[in-house]
């Protein structure tokens, strides 16, 4: 071999060794006898010069690995990966076969990448996700606990309801407020969006209305108060609340109501049929500084029912027929107007589920009240 050719080969070898030494990853080559025949500089600095030793001894082990990926790479002729712990650190190891000019496999190259911090971060994320899931489940239980019980209120109104959130936490809320011995407040609200923020807003609505006391007798004043309290939160414009609020007085039998942007009007069900209690109004938001809400009244007789619901029902979708819409809710109410509040709610939800050909992506909240005294 000429000196010039020998010099070129030395330079070429030095060039490849420099490349491997410049890598952050460890690189070593294992022959068919499981002995180390090459190590790059980063690996040599960490574990020492182990050339000539059996591969497992070079990693400080006393016996061969139960699953030797280099043996498998040489035998199977393909790259194989596993994780290896070296001196307390975790490495992702990939072993790939090396072939000669005749395509025969004569050794395997192993590349070690330190993934200790990555695995620690993954464990931390898993722990945090586990805690977050636990917290969300607790919040879900709490959110369901604050919904009104299915019972009789003030000896005059029988309430039944169901709530099906589209996520763990939802943005729909409804409640019954026993203002005094004669007046009962009822509302259903829908916060834009889903998840934690919307769920927290439902708590805000409930707490604000519960603390009003006798002031909650006037629905228009109540919604105006809620509007200004909401503006004080300085929440982003993308969030808003729609709410329908009404008060029933068992002495006068008047149901007085107002609406702040809720597009699913409550349905009155009585001996004459079914009809929506319709009234307009701006949603609770931060856009307008001042708002005024209109209020109206309707007389309710014994046996009359009111059905409150949110757009998770009206916006259920069927690819052939489109949205479920309020008209279909009216149809179901008409067909089941002689049934009790629980059965009426079940009938509406069953019809929606059978109608929808796509996943219902919004919360479903529905509450029915029957005048019994």
Automatic annotation (TrEMBL):
Lineage summary: Bacteria, Bacillati, Bacillota, Clostridia, Peptostreptococcales
InterPro entries: Bact_Sigma-Reg, PAS-assoc_C, PAS-like_dom_sf, PPM-type-like_dom_sf, PPM-type_phosphatase-like_dom
A family per Pfam: SpoIIE
Keywords annotated in UniProt: Hydrolase
Record's protein name: Phosphoserine phosphatase RsbU
Gene source species: Thermotalea metallivorans
PAC domain location: 75-127
Keyword Hydrolase belongs to the record: yes
GO molecular function: phosphatase activity
EC number(s) stated in the UniProt entry for this protein: 3.1.3.3
Gene that encodes the chain: rsbU
Top class in the EC scheme: hydrolase
Gene3D superfamilies: PAS domain, PPM-type phosphatase domain
């Amino acid at each position: 071999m000429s000196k010039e050719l020998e010099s070129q080969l030395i330079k070429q070898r030095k060039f490849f060794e420099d490349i491997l030494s410049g890598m952050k990853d460890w690189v070593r080559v294992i022959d068919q006898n499981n002995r180390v025949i090459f190590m790059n500089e980063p690996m040599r600095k960490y574990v020492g010069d182990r050339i000539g030793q059996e591969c497992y001894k070079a990693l400080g082990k006393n016996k061969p690995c139960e699953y030797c990926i280099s043996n498998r790479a040489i035998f199977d002729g393909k790259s194989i990966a596993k994780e290896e712990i070296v001196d307390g650190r975790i490495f992702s190891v990939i072993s790939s076969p090396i072939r000669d000019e005749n395509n025969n496999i004569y050794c395997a190259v192993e590349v070690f990448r330190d993934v200790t911090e990555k695995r620690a971060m993954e464990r931390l994320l898993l722990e945090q996700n586990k805690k977050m899931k636990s917290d969300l489940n607790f919040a879900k239980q709490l959110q369901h606990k604050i919904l009104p019980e299915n019972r009789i209120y003030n000896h005059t109104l029988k309430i039944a309801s169901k709530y099906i959130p589209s996520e763990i936490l939802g943005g729909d809320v409804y409640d019954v407020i026993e203002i005094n011995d004669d007046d009962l407040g009822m509302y259903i609200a829908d916060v834009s969006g889903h998840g934690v923020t919307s769920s927290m807003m439902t708590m805000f609505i409930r707490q604000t209305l519960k603390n009003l006391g006798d002031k909650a007798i006037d629905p228009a004043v109540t919604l105006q108060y809620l509007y200004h309290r909401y503006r004080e939160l300085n929440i982003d414009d993308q969030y808003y609340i729609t709410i329908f609020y009404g008060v029933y007085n068992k002495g006068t039998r008047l149901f007085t109501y107002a609406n702040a942007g809720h597009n699913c009007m409550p349905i009155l069900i009585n001996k004459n049929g079914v009809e929506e209690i319709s009234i307009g109004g701006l949603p609770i938001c931060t856009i307008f500084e001042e708002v005024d809400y209109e209020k109206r009244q309707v007389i309710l007789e014994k046996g009359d029912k009111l059905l409150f619901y949110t757009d998770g029902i009206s916006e259920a979708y069927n690819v052939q027929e489109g949205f479920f819409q309020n008209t279909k809710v009216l149809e179901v109410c008409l067909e089941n107007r002689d049934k009790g509040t629980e059965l009426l709610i079940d009938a509406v939800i069953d019809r929606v589920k059978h109608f929808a050909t796509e996943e219902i992506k919004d919360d479903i909240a529905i509450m029915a009240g029957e005048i019994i005294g």
